[in-house]
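Good morning N.,

You mentioned wanting to compare the apo and holo forms, so I went ahead and generated the holo version with adenosine-5'-triphosphate. This is what I fed in:
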Amino acid sequence: MSLRSVSARSQISGVAPSRTPRWTRRRVRDRCVRSVWRSSRDVSGPVDRCRPFSTETHEFKAETKKLLDIVAKSLYTDKEVFIRELISNASDACEKLRFLQTTQQVKDVSDAERPLQVTLSVNESERKFVIEDSGIGMTHDELIEHLGTIAKSGSLDFLQRGESDASKIIGQFGVGFYSTFVVADKVEVYTKTADKEKGEKGYLWTSDGSGSFTITEVDEVPRGTKIELTLKDDATEFSKLATVKKAAQKFSSFIDFPIYVTEEGEPKPINKQEALWMKSSATEEQHLEFFRFLSGNSYGKPWYTLMYQTDAPLSIKSCFYIPDPDNAPSRMFTKDPEIGISLHSRRVMVKKHADGVIPKWLHWMKGIVDCEDMPMNISRESMQDTRLMEKLSMAVVRRILRFLQQEAKKDPEKYQKFFRGYSYFLKAGLIEDKEGNFSRHKDDLLKLLRFELDTQLDLDKPEEPEDTDAWHCQATADLCNPSGSKMRKDKRVLTEEEQTQMQKFIKSVLKEKVEQLYDNACIAAGTLDDPRVLMSRLNKVLEMFVYQGAGYDYARDRRVNVSTARNLSR
Ligand SMILES: Nc1ncnc2c1ncn2[C@@H]1O[C@H](COP(=O)(O)OP(=O)(O)OP(=O)(O)O)[C@@H](O)[C@H]1O
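and this is what came out, ligand included:
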């Protein structure tokens, strides 16, 4: 039987022969047989002169193995997340190619006539789920690097903390490509890089998720990536058209490339392709959908939503969400967080995590900033680009802070809950803004801070506030700055005299404590440059303990002789 007839009979069902690339028309096994053997240079030579493409076997990195083991054995109920992860990767791959082409970083594109798109297809009888994109693709080395190690620092964190509950890991971080092993016992990835300068060879990556993967060179792979899953017995629902179509619709509404599901041999478009942030308004339902899409979750709703569009000082179209304060990130695991807002220019993604525009203390916000004036190949080295980023950042952050001020006035109770969840980041913002942004957002930030006092503050009879939490103290110290914004008591602005009194009061009450507490706060925030400065103060605190413990009033009488102190410390 000729290869052609085998291929024609065993094509993946639902793929239109006339509208789809050649590779989807051939059964995988046949293509592998055909492609792992290739003629020697002398094509007219006998069959025994053919030599096989060698198949390399690689071990997954240790953490990847651990993650795969947890994921593959999981009984995770929300299995469809793998579709979201694969669609998102396929869309990122298209986005990347569009970006590199637009910025002339890829000049010679493979299969240049292939439009940027994503296609999903299934084969129920063979338990197959297939997704293919015409995006950037991967070279041999990129395959090893990208699919052999864990990319998501979040899931790595979880593993390092000894977490082994797959539902928590998958629920919170998605685990990207590896979520395929929740549903598949065999994963095959066909890929070819779009950049001809990097090579024109195609590769097949295969794994059953049990510790190693193989890579084989393959003929006739078009530009992009095709992922073929052989589904586990308990996941055969994902070889059903109706299930896949429903899930794909749910996860692809805002993808900026056409997404097709092959139905009765015809690719049918399923996504609306709407970039919400470019619209002048949107319904609550649309925001909910977009928020979930950006957070990579199929649940949850935003606490606050802000759409911000302006033409001056820059042309900005943006959409921001603040997640439920109950899910605010823990400050213990946010030392080097990824910014949740991406930067676009006329819909094309310029930066996935828009640092430079959004400061770290606002990393927990989700959203998109689209700025027409932004060059696509923005560089950190160019002063002009840096200035543009700063200008954009000023406009966007100021708008966010003023929006929060408005919300605080509109619904103080709702704001109170927001503040409880995110207060640490706003207080940290005050410090980071001072250090990295000349305190340009200080006035706006101060208006957002709230302090709890156990007793009603009496300016004539000062009492010490109970809450002397370190950030609190630092923020309070900032308030003491005479150029600070006005403080309020009982919803009225304090008079100048009252403010001076208040500053004196805070300084008198917190004087000794702010010494040491400020440094503790700096250690917690990882901003203390020289820990040696702590030593003399720590020694003093210890000395204080020793004296006070023995009944001496250290603050009033420090003239206790040294031998008494030595005896005491024993
Ligand atoms: N369809 C694809 N085309 C090209 N490269 C891909 C594709 N799918 C995955 N990759 C590569 O593999 C890497 C790992 O993918 P994975 O989904 O595990 O994490 P990620 O996508 O980097 O994480 P995140 O979802 O936070 O962006 C990607 O960063 C990308 O470089």
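The radius of gyration is 30 Å.

Happy to go through it together on a call whenever suits you.

Best,
F.
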